[in-house]
Amino acid sequence: MREVTFKNRYFSAAHKREVCIEEIIAENGCVSKTTKRSLYFVQDIRTMGSEEEFNTWLKENEGKTATDRNFHIMKIQSNMSNTSTVLCKAKGSFYIVVGRDVYNIVYLHCLRMEIKGPKTEKVC
């Protein structure tokens, strides 16, 4: 059995978008669940008054990222429930320029892979 769920949500009050894809595969007593989630937030909007002001801002920020990027990987092993989980998270930001508006976008990407094996009885 294979099940795929796709969610695309937008929260206008928070200037936030969430995209999530979840896939569950059950086969031979094992269940594999993969979740990919991306979150995007508009942190700051700056409007440039003139082309000269925009060019000055562009020269100051050329080659710079809005914030440092972070990347984390974690593995969790549970012998009691016979489950292995791997979590990967990436966080950072980037700029988008539309006309004279500069948007600072912060993102968080999460990947979670979980494999659950068949239950086995413990021998004492």
- Binned strand content: over 45%
Order of helices and strands: EEEHEEE
Reported for the largest beta sheet, the result is: 6 strands, antiparallel
| Total number of beta strands | 6
Overall geometry: elongated
The overall pLDDT, averaged over residues, is: 85
Structural class comes to mainly beta
Question: Which stretches are poorly predicted, pLDDT < 50 over at least 5 residues?
Answer: none
How many domains, in number, for the residues? 1
Give the proportion of residues in helices.
Answer: under 10%
The number of helical elements comes to: 1
| Major sheet strand order | 1-2-3-6-5-4
Describe the 3D structure.
By secondary structure, the protein is mainly β. It has one domain (2-116). It has one helix spanning 51-61, and strands at 2-11, 16-27, 30-47, 70-78, 83-98, 101-116. A hairpin with a 4-residue loop joins strand 4 (70-78) and strand 5.
Provide a short characterization of the protein structure.
The protein is 9% helix and 65% strand. It has 124 residues and is mainly beta. The two termini are 34 Å apart.
Layout of helices and strands:
Blueprint (H helix, E strand, L loop, with lengths): L1 E10 L4 E12 L2 E18 L3 H11 L8 E9 L4 E16 L2 E16 L8
Antiparallel strand pairs: 1-2, 2-3, 3-6, 4-5, 5-6
Q: What would the keywords be for this entry?
A:
124 residues, mainly beta, 6-stranded antiparallel beta sheet, 6 strands, 9% helix, 65% strand, elongated
